[in-house]
Design brief:
The complex is a heterodimer of chains A (318) and B (229). In chain A, 74% of the residues lie in helices and 1% in strands. Chain A has 318 residues and is mainly alpha-helical. Chain A folds into 2 domains: 4-169, no CATH class; 175-315, no CATH class. In chain A, strands 1-2 form a two-stranded antiparallel ribbon. In chain A, α1 (4-23) packs across α6 (130-150), α10 (207-225) packs antiparallel against α11 (228-247) and α11 runs antiparallel to α12. The radius of gyration of chain A is 24 Å and the shape is globular. Chain B is mainly alpha-helical. Chain B has 2 domains: 2-52, no CATH class; 63-218. Chain B is built from 11 helices and no strands. The longest helix of chain B is centred in the C-terminal third of the chain and has 24 residues, at 195-218. Mean pLDDT of chain B is 90; it is low at 223-229. Classes of the chains: A mainly alpha (318), B mainly alpha (229). Chains A and B meet through α1, α3, α4, α5 and α6 of A and α1, α2, α3, α4 and α5 of B.
Chain lengths: 318, 229
């Protein structure tokens, strides 16, 4: 059975290649720190399934010291100049889109085909991990298509991956760190404390106030946790079920569905949702790491108001 | 109350613009210590959670092929392709991507998009190219604004599209949580109640993209700025 472990090996190999390419680049003023950072991350992909969690924890702390305290550098060499890229673009034309579109196409195909693929009753791929495995396969297929078509030097994929990953820098690891923070919040019972506070301090006298408290609370708590899935059980157990549903007789379907979507409005406004907000800013080489959040805030606030209105209008009608 | 120290550190750290990696780590360590895990326990918990969330990073596997295609001029081609369509504007390009992304997400096809696969190599260059069609070379400021909007469209469209699909994670989470609390609901009904918000998201964001177009029309192009950063 193919599982995530195979995909993690692939990821470890890629990061190891990136580390080697970093070590060989004398144009990076922080060459060895950058090398160490990617190499340590590579190690967690290859070995963390077998290492004691304490060792992985120490590796992660070392990455934070190198990436978050000392700081990473970036090489200055560019692989192909603008003129070369434009000449190549003119030569290949729309065929350049083919390998790029292979990625979603193969991911979707894999998702659909691998879910039930089995030999002798044994699943070829663990059904729970089909999406990730499909993405891994899709990137390999796209890479093969791209290499066959463009015939670049064999080192090009790793060299180019390093260029992009250097542009993203430490932000590449942030989503994983935030997931770890969320786990610690859960262990420490942060959610419980927040909902207790909310119950004590917020006046919840009317059906309308209950709805507003629930939707705005979902958005705010999502902003703190960085994830609506973490906020939903806390806010729904603390406000949604006891007040909106039990005390004022609201419909749980409308309440829960629109409540979750109110949380998504919060996701659009917080740096804690790093993979949606901070990583793309880094990936698009924006100097302001909050630029994506700033572009989203007006829509998020209007939509939060819309959600509140939708819930108030329909939740009590049944 | 000491439990909330991590939240305080996160808010203060982001407000002071300290390195987020450092802020998050310190917040995690402080929260764990406040909960009485002990130093070894906290580091172990960190290692465990980091190990279990490695799947989040798999998206970076697309970098070799995207980098390879960029080296061969993919972004330049995306820009040129848009230059051939006179009716294209930044707002309209982004509206089209919004609609495709939201509808495909509603059908459960959430992997049809993403910042590394679609936005950086294709959508952002097309949106920039459409603006260049109109006003000539762009200032860095305008270019960054357009890119931020391209990333925003990817997020908003998928967030408010995916919940219409009944087998998506959030619908299953809601159903499971309500059942634990003794409330039985149908996944299909939950998905149905995602539709009004989805429509609102589309309308609100289309209006904002139309306003973005208006703003870009009034922005003079950069007379002396060439090249991309």
């Amino acid at each position: 059975m193919i599982g995530l472990e195979a995909v993690y090996w692939l990821m470890g190999l890629l990061l190891l290649g990136v580390a080697v390419a970093s070590a060989r680049d004398a144009s990076n003023p922080r060459r060895w720190r950058t090398t160490a950072f990617w190499a340590l991350w590579a190690l967690t992909f290859v070995a963390s399934s077998h290492l004691p969690h304490l060792v992985t924890g120490v590796i992660v702390l070392a990455m934070v010291l190198v990436g978050g305290v000392a700081g990473l550098g970036q090489g200055t060499r560019e692989s192909a100049g603008r003129a070369a890229r434009e000449a190549s673009a003119a030569r290949w034309g729309n065929r350049l889109f083919i390998p790029a579109l292979v990625i979603p196409a193969v991911t979707l195909l894999g998702n659909w085909a691998l879910k039930s693929a089995a030999i002798g009753g044994v699943h070829l791929v663990d059904p729970k991990q089909v999406t990730q495995v499909s993405l891994g396969i899709a990137t390999l297929v796209a890479l093969v298509v791209g290499m066959a078509m463009l015939r670049p030097p064999a080192s090009a994929p790793v060299v180019e991956a390093r260029r992009l990953l250097d542009a993203v820098g430490w932000a590449a690891v942030l989503p994983q760190m935030l997931a770890a923070l969320g786990a610690l919040f859960a262990v420490a019972g942060v959610g419980r404390v927040v909902s207790t506070l909310a119950e004590q301090w917020i006046p919840l006298g009317s059906p309308f106030v209950a709805v507003v408290t629930y939707t705005v609370g979902m958005a705010l708590f999502t902003m703190i946790m960085g994830n609506a899935f973490a906020a939903f059980p806390v806010m729904t157990a603390g406000i949604g079920l006891p007040l909106v549903m039990v005390r004022f007789g609201g419909d749980p379907v409308v309440m829960a569905a629109v409540g979750m979507l109110s949380g998504f409005c919060g996701t659009l406004m917080t740096p804690m949702a790093a993979n949606y907000n901070i990583v793309p800013a880094a990936l698009l080489e924006l100097p302001d790491k909050n630029a994506v959040i700033k572009a989203q805030v007006p829509t998020a606030l209007l939509l939060l108001a819309a959600n509140t209105a939708i819930m108030y209008l329909f939740v009590y009608r049944r | 109350m000491l439990t909330l120290i991590g939240v305080v550190i996160v808010v203060a750290g982001f407000a002071l613009r300290l390195n987020p990696l450092l802020v998050v780590t310190v917040a995690g360590l402080a929260t764990g210590l406040a909960a009485g895990l002990g130093l070894v326990g906290v580091i172990t918990a960190f290692g465990k959670a980091f190990t279990e969330s490695r799947y989040i990073a798999i998206v970076w596997l697309v970098l070799p092929v995207i980098g390879l295609l960029e080296r061969a001029g993919l972004k330049e081609r995306a820009r040129a392709a848009i230059a051939g369509i006179p009716a294209a504007t930044t707002g309209r390009v982004l509206m089209l991507y919004f609609a495709v992304r939201q509808v495909s997400a509603a059908l459960g096809l959430t992997s049809l998009g993403g910042h590394a696969q679609m936005v950086r190599p294709l959508v952002a260059p097309m949106a920039e190219g459409a603006a260049e069609n109109r006003v000539g070379p762009l200032t860095d400021e305008t270019r960054f604004l357009i890119r931020a909007h391209a990333a925003a469209v990817d997020n908003i469209a998928v967030f408010f599209g995916e919940d219409i699909f009944i087998a998506i994670g959030s619908i299953l989470l809601i159903k499971g949580f309500l059942e634990q609390n003794g409330v039985r609901v149908e996944a299909a009904h939950l998905a149905l109640w995602a539709v009004p918000t989805a429509v609102c998201a589309l309308v609100i964001h289309f209006v904002r993209l139309a306003l973005l177009d208006r703003r870009l029309r009034r922005t003079p192009g950069a007379a002396a700025v060439g090249g991309e950063p």
